[in-house]
Specification:
This protein has eight helices and 15 strands. It is of the alpha+beta class and 319 residues long. The strands form three sheets. An eight-stranded mixed β-sheet has the order 4-3-5-6-7-8-9-10, sandwiched between helices. The chain starts with a helix and ends with a helix. 45% of the residues are buried. The structure holds 1,6-di-O-phosphono-alpha-D-fructofuranose. 1,6-di-O-phosphono-alpha-D-fructofuranose (AFP) binds next to loops.
């Protein structure tokens, strides 16, 4: 069976991008090992401070962020780093050629209940002859050269695209490598499974409320088929399910907190997941536009997200 370096070699991935991907995935294996120890390592629970999002940081948020930041900082190919857990971008090597934005531990509210979490990453190619600044990073998602995630579930899996389709790899602890287990993932255009946090319903727009109400009515409503619902509360887990068996995922705008009309972040959640979905034949939009077309205005910018089965995303946006 092929492993990650075989696939990268055969897809003529540039050497320096290969180096960034190798450092990222090897660090994720170390994060996976730390997670597997759980409370035995005394690393669950709160870190006792807040991140730029105003969210309580868990110890493993900080630990995984520092592991990735240190490893990538030392990689000569990395020009700058952005992270959910870093207030500002971190310039690395001025003559590096790649930006990497990541959510070091997406779904961290799941850690203490031993539920799925993951690391999401987004990579751009850019050079410059002075240390990178935030403005350099504000590049639309369609310019990404690679995107993916490592899912820490019953098995540790890497899902990756470098612009030529989506491949899934399973970590083999006996050989300590990622082995190719699913090639060229395709998301079915239709689905009968949706993912949304229903507790926010009263805060959604009327159009989202009517769209979701029709899914719930199933055969008794206009959709003429019944739907199932799932909510992992970790985008990485919901997206993985959609890549494996189809579905639609929504985190719409809501008026619960005027300061935070949406929850998901563009640069290191929506953009990488949007690239994966489109490479797998799916769609990823806000209410008004294709996510990969958005011109970012800030590194921690939030967006509404509707992604998954192409025809179901179209149906949702038609409301
Ligand atoms: P945390 O990383 O703070 O747990 O947030 C995870 C997340 O950003 C995304 O991965 C989930 O889809 C979404 O938030 C879950 O949001 P709710 O907690 O509102 O369900």
């Amino acid at each position: 069976m092929q492993n990650l370096s075989d696939v990268l070699a055969s897809s003529s991935t540039p050497e320096k991008l290969k180096a960034v991907l190798t450092v990222t995935t090897e660090t994720c294996i170390a994060i996976s090992d730390a997670l597997k120890q759980g409370s035995l390592a005394g690393i669950l629970g709160m870190a006792g401070n807040e991140n730029v999002q105003g969210e309580e940081q868990k110890k493993l948020d900080v630990i995984s962020n520092d592991m990735l930041k240190d490893a990538l900082f030392a990689c000569p190919a990395v020009r700058a780093i952005a992270s959910e857990e870093e207030d500002y971008i971190v310039p690395a090597n001025t003559d590096g050629e790649y930006f990497i934005a990541f959510d070091p531990l997406d779904g961290s509210s799941n850690i203490d209940i031993n539920a799925m979490v993951g690391t999401i990453f987004s990579i751009y190619h850019q050079t410059g002859n002075s240390p990178a600044v935030e403005a350099d990073f504000l590049i639309p998602g369609k310019e990404q050269v690679a995107a993916g995630y490592v899912l820490y579930g019953p098995s540790t899996m890497l899902v990756l695209t470098t612009g030529n389709g989506v491949n899934m790899f399973t970590y083999d602890p006996t050989k300590q490598i990622f082995t190719l287990t699913n090639e060229n993932i395709q998301v079915p255009e239709e689905t009968q499974e949706f993912a949304i946090n229903m507790s926010n319903q009263r805060f959604w727009s009327d159009s989202i409320q009517s769209y979701i109400n029709e899914l719930i009515k199933g055969k008794d409503g206009s959709r003429d088929k019944d739907f199932n619902m799932r909510w992992v509360a970790a985008m990485v887990g919901d997206v993985h399910r959609i890549l494996c068996r189809g579905g639609i995922f929504l985190y719409p705008w809501d008026n619960k907190d005027p300061a935070k009309p949406g929850k998901l972040r563009l640069m290191y959640e929506a953009n990488p997941m949007a690239m994966l979905l489109e490479q797998a034949g799916g769609k990823a939009h806000t209410h008004t536009q294709r996510i990969l077309d958005i011109q970012p205005e800030a590194i921690h910018q939030r967006v509404a997200v509707v992604l998954g089965a192409a025809n179901e995303v179209d149906k949702c946006l038609s409301y």
